[in-house]
Amino acid sequence: MAAPRLILSIASIAISCMPLQGPPLAAQDLVQREQAAFRAAADAVSSSVVQIQTFGSGQRAGEELQAAGPTTGTIVAADGWIITSLFSFREQPASILVVLPNGKRAAARIVARDFSRDLALLKIDANNLPVPQFATSEGIQVGQWAIALGKTYDEKFVSESVGIVSARGRAYGKALQVDCKVSPINYGGPLIDLGGRVLGILSPIAPGTFLEGDSAELYDSGIGFAIPAADVLARLEQMQSGEDIYSGKLGIVSDSTNELAGPVVISGATPGSPAAKVGVMAQDQLVAAAGKPVEMLAHLQNALGPLDAGQTFQFSILRQGQVQEYQCELAKEIPVYYRRYLGLRLADLPAEQGQPAFAIAAIEPDSPAASSALQVGQRILRCNQQAMPSRQDLRRIIAVAELDTPIIFEVAAPNEAEGTKADGTEEMGPPQTIELLPALWPTELAPALPQSLTAVGDSKTPASPNQEETPQPDASAEKVVEIAEISLGDFPNTAYAVVPLASNARPLGLLILFPEPGDLSQEKAQAYWQEFCASQGWIVAVLNSGDPRRWSREEVDLAARILGKLENAYELDKQRIVLGGIGVGGKLALVAAAAQVGRVTGVATLGTELKNIGLRVENAPLRSLDFLLLGTPSDLNNTAKSLRDLGYSAIVVDAPKLPTGSLESIPAAPLTRWLEGLGRL
């Protein structure tokens, strides 16, 4: 019976391979039908898409006001309400005109802004405007067709860009992600489906962006975002009343800034924040937020992302084995955070029973520590009841300290009369409890490095970075540094590091330097940096551009690769990780630091033009960045002020007409004092 079954199977295959009746559907016909569907969907919405023209503050050419450039808007209510992006409306234009599909022009005014989603609501005097059909969020599927519409090029016809919905819940739960072309051409326009329903409003929202100004725009990378229509409509009445919308802020500071790290252990709460007011404490573990479990930091960020200031936020904390429920009102603003300061420098001692041990290596003049009973040589036993704290523990405690609440230290000094124990460790005197009120981080360079900096656990003499002369190589001197080559794989860039041969008692600092395009030779770098590296315990890594004529945006990411390699090879001091740049290299250092907040603690720019550079994110505990700007003060003071307004420390050093092509021209004294100042607590 097997043979007949085989014959039937072959016959079935033969029949299935025979041509179908009638001509097959041609590929060209499929394309035409597809294009017709796209066109029909766009036509269904085009009458609700308007062009918006903005005009400057009284600038005229002849008799006409000069427009900043048209943008797109979408009608959301028949009586003259139009939603658009915040791209052209972060500041108030002198006048706004809306060009309706019938060619009529109407004056518009800004009623409200949604700063969380980068949207603005306009009002014109009109009635019976065509309102599109809006899709529900539940019906939006990843992979479905999407069409981005704009009206920048032509006030009568919409531009179209076709793609798919590639993700939901981006920008921390606030946006749809699409691969349509989304740019200033269609910001504020609708993202629609094949049925002509509005899925969302195209927005320049950028998830997690820290830097603004010269940083690359996301629309160049094939990624665009749209705020779901349901979320826009849910806030329409609030915005129509003239109320601006802001992101809701909680103020929790986590141990790790890695979004995929878990569990979420809390270092503390930003002083004055909602989290601080409800009693969140260090070492609490966040286990749930907005009714969903929290296993990593990204879960918390996505729970907070869609919520606005003034909304209620519920979360659960695990503390000493018990889950506690909290509820607070999210804030529009958290008081600007300024880094805390005690004026202590520490030296590592041999670990005791597997626990870290530290002694006070130096005390800064005119600091809180200087006015206390703390002394050089004392060992820190406890801090705020925590026994044998690590450096990171101390950083966390100080970072979230209230200025009116003392930090309590328990210290002990070596008992010289008793000598050493049988195991070689020092006999200690009786413990002493000392309370210390923190102060704000200094806003000026220290006049000199403390001379006792290397006195504990290190026999070398402190170096000469206080001198005003630029270091010069000494051919007869003993070799104190070596050059370590750094491999960057397929990248054409060369990179190397000046590394001290024998470090002092503490972990090494790291400066990753972007020079001007070209090749900064190892000999020049070694001659300039070797004395500082050897005496103060620093590695200076130099990354040369792949193209001797220019830097590229892709090379910014190489800083993280270099940092990772050196972290694996050496013990680094997490308080002294700096990115620096000479000339245009300073801009790359800023962009690279923005991508590594939490890993990098300082940025130094040397002769860099910074007029178009700014930060989007305020300072925060354990994410602080210190800035040193060397150059002409009149060119840098505005940038420094904007950084200080956000809570950052920004010091300007007068170095006029700095020839950025010459390393020897960089003033050594202020640069090295600033670098070493980062190691203070």
From TrEMBL:
GO terms for molecular function: serine-type endopeptidase activity. Residues 454-477 are annotated as: Disordered. Its EC number is 3.4.21.107. It is an enzyme of class 3 (hydrolase). The gene is mucD_8. Belongs to the peptidase S1C family. Pfam families: PDZ_2, Trypsin_2. Coiled coil: none annotated. Residues 461-470 have a biased composition (Polar residues). Keywords: Hydrolase, Protease. It comes from Aureliella helgolandensis. One of its GO terms (biological process) is proteolysis. SMART domains: PDZ (SM00228). InterPro entries: AB_hydrolase_fold, PDZ, PDZ_sf, Peptidase_S1_PA, Peptidase_S1_PA_chymotrypsin, Peptidase_S1C. This is Putative periplasmic serine endoprotease DegP-like. Residues 233-321 form the PDZ domain. It comes from the Bacteria.
